[in-house]
Amino acid sequence: MTVGTHLSSVQLGTIREELEEQLFRWNKRLAELEAAVNDDAVEVSEKAELLADIVSAERNAAVVRDALAGITGLTYGRCDGCGSAIPYERLKARPLARLCVQCQRSRETR
Asked: What is the dihedral of CA 4, 9, 14, 16, to 10 degrees?
């Protein structure tokens, strides 16, 4: 196991690859949106929607960057609610999960 986390280096590597792919896709989407918003042929009414999409894509990219930073800092995979280890199976299915299943359920029932 890796020091500071319950995940093995192989597990962290698998999740890191998925997160890096997600970040690549978000950065590509951002570039496309920024090119579109700067296109003089795009109507002004469409630019407001494009700007909202840019904000959303930037937010999503930041979440992925935070998860990658957590892997580097060996804090990735801990529940923000209770601090317990989030099982690898959950993280593999949802690499951006920040809550264990129990805390997620509690939050959803509030």
From this structure: 50
What sign does the dihedral 82-98-4-90 (CA atoms) show?
A: positive
> Per-residue pLDDT tens for 8-66?
999 999 999 999 999 999 999 999 999 999 988 888 889 999 999 999 999 999 999 99
Residue 26 identity (one-letter amino acid): W
Closest of 89, 78, 86, 95 to residue 15, by C-alpha: 95
First to last CA, the chain: 35
Task: Using DSSP, state whether 35 is helix, strand or coil.
Answer: helix
